Amino acid sequence: MVTLSVNNTTVKIDAGELVGYEVNGHQFIHQKGSPGWGSADTEMFPIIGPVNEAGFRVKTPKGEAVQDQHGLLRQMDYQLEHQTETSAVFVKEYQSGTGVYNSKFPEKSTEEKLTWPYDFRFEKSFLLTDNSLEIHFKVSGEEAMPFMLGYHPAFKLHSKSPVILAKGKEISLDEVLAVGSRALQVDDCTSITLRDEKEITIETEGFGNFMCWTEVRNMVCIEPITFYPYAVEQSNLHQGFQELKDTAQFKVVLRPKS
């Protein structure tokens, strides 16, 4: 467990997963073991969304890749590369064609191993400041590699009627619940505020969109994404790819209201 701290703020990171962000005694992150989801955050890469209806296959310029929901990155382990009192850097590296064990097999998937036809390096870094937590993502790999990226943090809810503020509009928890597993789309948006017992704003660079998901009332996932996967049929998921040019960098800032 990596712990970052400054003033009255503590961040806990378990093998690259953000499992705690506590500010003046208030915990913003969904706690593992609580109802709703077995994780606290994850990354969706190199695809976002399900592919079960497409035979767990995704089209790429190098042929079909075997993927499961939200890609193979989440099935890989992070390595801690660097750490200070207020920062930490984690890395995952992948060699093209390597089979990655799929934890959804066999209960929820027919595919035991997932593969991707490109090499890549994925870096996730945390920087704790006096008034925010910055999470940076850096993707490097083969030129023109197709990919999508989504960040999937879960926020703990403390009140009965939290509100999500996006693009000048209010979104209720009931509206998110009503959409179900597809997740509520918030397109062309770089900042969302979650107004609960305490208020926190999620600011982004490089993603451009969000989707919101929960199936319980004690947490909500507010997810920056490069592409909303339900905009196309699963067999056409490749339409949401962007191409890697040397490196791609993305940023998420969690900014609690002081």
TrEMBL record:
- Where does the UniProt annotation place the signal sequence? none
Which InterPro entries does the record associate with it? Aldose_1/G6P_1-epimerase, Gal_mutarotase_sf_dom, GH-type_carb-bd
- Which UniProt key words apply to this protein? Calcium
Q: Which GO terms label this protein's molecular function in UniProt? A: carbohydrate binding; isomerase activity
- Cofactor(s) the protein requires to work: Ca(2+)
Q: Which Pfam families match?
A: Aldose_epim
Which SUPFAM superfamilies does the annotation name? Answer: Galactose mutarotase-like (SSF74650)
Superkingdom in the source lineage: Bacteria
Q: Which GO terms describe its biological process?
A: carbohydrate metabolic process
Subunit organization: Monomer.
Q: What is this protein called?
A: Aldose 1-epimerase
